[in-house]
Amino acid sequence: MSQLWEVVGGVASGGILVREGQDITSPKASERLSTGAIVKEVTLEGERLQYLLLSGTGPTTGWVGTALNAKQLLVKTDKAPATAETTGTDTSKGGGYAAAAAPVAQAPVAEKPVVDEELKAKYAAAAKEGAKDFDTWCMKYKVLKFPVADCKLRVFCFHNAGSAESVWTAPGPTNQILAWVKERKDVELVAMSYPGRDKMMKTPPHESTSSLCEAMLPVLYDKIADGVPYAVVSHSVGTWVAFEFLMLARKVGLPMPKVAFFSAFPAPHMPKELRPWRVNRGLDEAAMKEEVLNWDKTHFSGPAKIVFQDDWSTTWGPLMRADFRLFDEYEFAHDDEPKFDFPICTFHMGKEHFCKPEMLEMWKDWTTADFVFDTFEEFGHLTCAYQPAQKKVYTERIASILAKHA
Description:
By secondary structure, this protein is of the alpha/beta class. The chain has helices at 117-130, 134-137, 166-169, 176-184, 209-225, 238-251, 285-295, 297-301, 312-328, 357-361, 383-386, 388-405, and strands at residues 4-7, 38-45, 48-55, 61-65, 67-68, 71-72, 74-77, 88-90, 95-97, 153-158, 187-191, 230-235, 259-263, 344-349, 371-376. It has two domains: 4-97, no CATH class; 117-405, 3-Layer(aba) Sandwich (Rossmann fold), CATH 3.40.50. The chain has twelve helices and 15 strands. The longest helix has 18 residues, at 388-405.
């Protein structure tokens, strides 16, 4: 009898990705292979498995990865369904078919995420000291005349690589999020800068989302824990920072947002082998500059070309390398976590060089609530946040959705 395998991954995303061919760039199947499914091995090439479905749900046959980032997605098993021996290959259809099989229980998805009580106590204690650094991380909070009385909503903003809180706090008609906040008078904008810039210029920048979020949570803890509803707005690598922040916040029992925006970046569980960018640690200076430029040639050939000039070797180069490591060395480790229960909004920019629409649509795997996806066809990865006309449209769209949750 051929080797049988059980699907153990994909708990949070409704199963594991199936492709029509062995190559990881071959077309995706329309369905995922369910967690708990039992399959029969047809061919095994390294970590790529061609299978026939015996029990569970998903495509009858296809190719899957047995592991991702050193985490098993399928494991060998002897849990053969009672009718497994009747399964064969229907050559007239050019593929395999699964005979009726006894159902196999799927791995449960917790109705509520498990709170780590020890970790919860640790961060609650750390918040007492972390709150003292709030004005350092969120330097415009008081400048913008926050806090406000009887706050109805806080909007936490996470910036892109090589940027700072100013991408969200800069005043003027192009920033419709801030304009809406000011018009409301009962909403606060909490935009933080990551270490390595602004008031933390002398603090070494973080090179992993984990360490960054572990440092950030004590600072923002009180603003999350005080019962005021909140929303999350994030752009580019800020989406992965925000995602990890929310994962950690949920683990310590903090409330979740009313809505979250994860824009201009793939979902974090996208397989590492599908990431279209290069890992920057081994790139020389010329290659690193090229990698930065490729993210948005219009932006970096125009208003932002200054980053490649005099301060590149002492300021911009080191900062970009650190910020890029937040995503190009990112290790996804949440395959078995339950989905979020708040709406997720994702906006794709049509002039992207690296990020394709299907990469962003994967964010829908992370919510049991509404999912909003749209493309701004003529916008670039960064021009949408810096070119005045584009920024006005982009932030106006976000503000219109925030208004429904305030």
